[in-house]
Write a structure and sequence with these properties.
By secondary structure, the protein is an alpha/beta fold. 50% of the residues lie in helices and 8% in strands. It is built from 18 helices and seven strands. The strands form two sheets. A five-stranded parallel beta sheet has the order 4-5-6-1-7, covered by helices on one side. Strands 2-3 form a two-stranded antiparallel sheet. Strand 2 and strand 3 form a beta hairpin. 38% of the residues are buried. It comes from Sterolibacterium denitrificans. One of its GO terms (biological process) is DNA-templated DNA replication. One of its GO terms (cellular component) is DNA polymerase III complex.
Length: 365
């Protein structure tokens, strides 16, 4: 299993002396940077019986020994992957997709990504007890990957904490998290935190172009510079839905100007494409409001750099002020917590539209 180009330096820092790795690592950073693929590559290297050299520091798994073959087929006796049960039932998981992309393997277009919204339960952590406290089958390291670590419910987190307090010498826990601050402070304190940063725009664009992705600039802007997320958006035609979802927010002359009609537009979009869900819509509205706020406060943009979007953002900020927009952003963060399971989708959409329109009805003083 290979790593992505923007991970080379971090890999060399960690894997130049794999025998000195701590018993627990926390791979933290935004989604779409390849943390799970990195974790799988680490597991493969720690379990590999004949690692390959990579430059002056670090090494990759050979991919040919019996250990690598077992790991590739999901049957390695010294490896465990703990993830929400919903992800386990979804076929190829995120780690397998990332690892396949990192290795350059050619594959058919993947299925639509399913968000593992369920928790990691206590019985899944308790099930690790025999694995952790019984010796290695291959007389080497044993590896446990938890992804996403923040999905552990409180009981599971406490059960893991007990294991991390007195772990055997040969075990290595690799926790992967997009929201690592949600983890218990006591768990974070027992892990070495490895923060993944975004690659440079040039490196990310070069990798995406090699993957055959078009409209690279817009995709990287809207995904916050996360290459894997940008690639997934391109494969799933998310950018098309993004533009459609923005149309009601533009408040052009022909667009909806009241919460009910705005919500109706969004409702039609959600029904037309089953891969486009409510959390994605809330994320789009949040990014738009965030850019409105940045224009009002500093005259700058983060996501919507296309000229037509920029012009519309500047026009809309004249109808509001930063205080009202900050309030709208705060409201969106609050309602996002229930976006996956709203009691009534139509009322949820109307409420979100009303909050947005209300923030634009407060003129600057």
């Amino acid at each position: 299993m290979n790593i992505f180009p923007w991970q080379t330096k971090l890999w060399e820092q960690l894997m130049s002396a794999p025998d000195k790795l701590p018993h627990a690592l926390l791979l933290a950073g935004p989604a779409g940077l390849g943390k799970q693929a990195f974790a799988m590559a680490m597991a493969a290297r720690l379990l590999c019986e004949a690692p390959l050299a990579q430059g002056e520091a670090g090494a990759l798994a050979c991919g040919c020994c019996s250990s690598c073959n077992w790991l590739a087929t999901g049957n390695h006796p010294d490896f465990r992957l703990v993830q929400p049960e919903a992800a386990e039932e979804a076929g190829m998981d995120e780690g397998e997709q990332e690892a396949s992309a990192a290795s350059g393997a050619k594959k058919a277009k993947p299925k639509t990504a399913r968000v593992a919204s369920g928790p990691i339960r206590i019985d899944q952590i308790r099930g690790l007890a025999d694995f952790v406290f019984i010796g290695s089958h291959r007389h080497g390291r044993r590896v446990v990957i938890l992804n996403p670590a923040e999905a552990m419910n409180p009981a599971a987190a406490n059960a893991l904490l007990k294991i991390l307090e007195e772990p055997p010498a040969s075990i290595c826990f690799i926790l992967v998290s997009d929201s690592w601050r949600k983890l218990l402070p006591t768990i974070r304190s027992r892990c070495r935190i490895v923060v993944f940063g975004r690659p440079t725009p040039a490196l990310a664009a070069s990798w995406l172009q090699a993957e055959g992705v078009e409209d690279v600039g817009s995709l990287l802007q809207l995904t916050g510079g996360a290459p894997l997320l940008a690639r997934d958006w391109a494969q799933q035609a998310v950018l098309t839905n993004y533009r459609k979802a923005l149309e009601p927010l533009l408040l052009t002359q022909d667009g909806p100007v009241d919460p009910v009609s705005m919500a109706a537009k969004w409702g039609e979009l959600l029904k037309a494409d089953s891969t486009f869900d409510l959390p994605q819509l809330v994320d789009i509205v949040q990014k738009w409001v965030m850019d409105l706020t940045q224009v009002a406060l500093a005259g700058s943009l983060r996501y919507h750099l296309e000229p037509a979007w920029r012009d519309r953002l500047e026009a809309l900020t004249k109808r509001s002020n930063a205080t009202a927009l900050l309030g709208c952003d705060r409201d969106l963060r609050r309602i996002r917590a229930v976006a996956r399971h709203p009691l009534n989708t139509q009322l949820f959409l109307e409420d979100m539209a009303a909050r947005y329109l209300r923030s634009l009805s407060v003129k600057n003083n």
